[in-house]
Structures are given as structure tokens and as C-alpha cells.
């Protein structure tokens, strides 16, 4: 089993992330999204890590199908190693957006994975749900800031399709991720604010 101190692959160019990294991925097309997500999941499933995510894109299932030649997807699902939720099943649950509800969702999944014996959990959050029930730039970014205190030693990758979010939202979201991936480059984010600092500026 891969140790939690090891780095992990994110994207086709073998970019490395570490346990506990909270990465914001800005992507222009779904193909670019899949080029980031699929290697991340492929490596995690092969290493017997728990892989969970929230994806509402109509082609999310098709994206996972691309892994079937290399990974036994049905087996991973049956063994509760792989679970992809829609926002209705997880983030929204038929109610207005609540940052605490979403944080509790991730905390619960991390805890359940640990109890099941998984080394740690790889997480993916596709943010398309926010376009249908937009909580407002401040609420969304506040959730992202708080998420830094939840992920701890587990990697979290948040996915934002560039053309679908306003500049105001993207600027605030940028402040809440220690790392960002854009144009195939992984960067330490110079605009990142620690959660306490971010929330203090919002008061």
C-alpha cells in the first residue's frame, strides 16, 4: 500500500501532489478535466486508496468508463473503494446550500474510509452544482476556505470550468486553495489566504 507520505500523480504529465493538498483545477474543456482526473483516480484505485467525488456532468459516467480497461471499476464500486455522488446525493441533498452540511459530508466519508481500512482518501469535487443553485461568491469561497481544515492528510481536487464561473467567483475561490493547476502547470498559489485570515477579511 502506498504510504501517506508519498506524492501522487495528478494529470497526464505526472504532476505531483501530496496528502493534504487542496488543489484548484481551472479547466477549459471536459477533455482537459478528464486528463487531470483520470490519472489521479487510476493511481488511487491501483494503490487501494478510497476514491470519492461529486460530479454532476452528464458525461461523468463516460469519463469513468475510460478507466475500465485498466481498473476493475465494478469491483471497486462493490468493495466501496470508489464512490461518485451527484450533488443531490451529497452537497445539496434537496436543501439550500449549507457549507457545514458539505463539510460534514466530507468528514463522514473520510472517517468511514479510515474505519474500512483504507490508507487515506482521494477526493474530487466538481463544482458544476454551484451554477444551478449558486450560494453566492462569498458563501462558496467560505466553504472552500473551511475545507482546508477538513482535508488534513487527504488530497482534495476541486474542478472549475473556466467559462462557466464569473470572474468574481474565481478570484475568491483562488484565495482559498494553497495550490492551483492551470494550463498544465501546478503552482503554489501566491494569492492563497489561510482559513482564519480569509474569514477575518469577510467579517
UniProtKB/TrEMBL annotation:
Any one Pfam family match given in the protein's UniProt record, by short name: MEDS
Lineage start: Bacteria, Bacillati, Actinomycetota, Actinomycetes, Kitasatosporales
Domain MEDS: 21-178
Name recorded for this polypeptide: MEDS domain-containing protein
Superkingdom per UniProt: Bacteria
Amino acid at each position: 500500500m502506498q504510504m501517506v507520505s508519498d506524492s501522487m500523480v495528478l494529470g497526464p504529465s505526472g504532476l505531483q501532489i501530496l496528502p493534504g493538498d487542496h488543489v484548484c483545477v481551472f479547466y477549459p474543456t471536459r477533455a482537459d478535466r478528464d486528463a487531470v482526473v483520470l490519472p489521479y483516480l487510476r493511481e488511487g484505485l491501483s494503490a487501494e486508496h478510497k476514491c470519492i467525488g461529486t460530479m454532476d456532468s452528464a458525461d461523468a459516467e463516460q469519463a469513468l468508463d475510460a478507466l475500465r480497461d485498466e481498473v476493475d471499476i465494478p469491483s471497486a464500486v462493490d468493495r466501496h473503494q470508489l464512490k461518485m455522488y451527484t450533488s443531490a446525493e451529497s452537497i445539496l441533498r434537496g436543501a439550500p446550500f449549507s457549507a457545514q452540511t458539505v463539510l460534514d459530508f466530507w468528514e463522514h466519508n473520510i472517517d468511514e474510509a479510515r474505519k474500512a481500512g483504507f490508507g487515506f482518501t482521494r477526493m474530487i469535487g466538481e463544482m458544476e452544482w454551484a451554477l444551478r443553485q449558486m450560494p453566492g461568491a462569498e458563501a462558496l469561497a467560505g466553504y472552500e476556505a473551511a475545507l482546508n481544515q477538513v482535508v488534513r492528510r487527504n488530497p482534495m481536487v476541486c474542478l472549475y470550468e473556466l467559462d462557466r464561473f464569473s470572474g468574481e467567483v474565481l478570484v475568491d475561490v483562488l484565495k482559498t486553495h494553497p495550490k492551483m493547476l492551470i494550463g498544465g502547470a501546478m503552482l503554489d498559489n501566491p494569492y492563497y489566504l489561510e482559513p482564519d485570515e480569509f474569514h477575518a477579511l469577510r467579517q
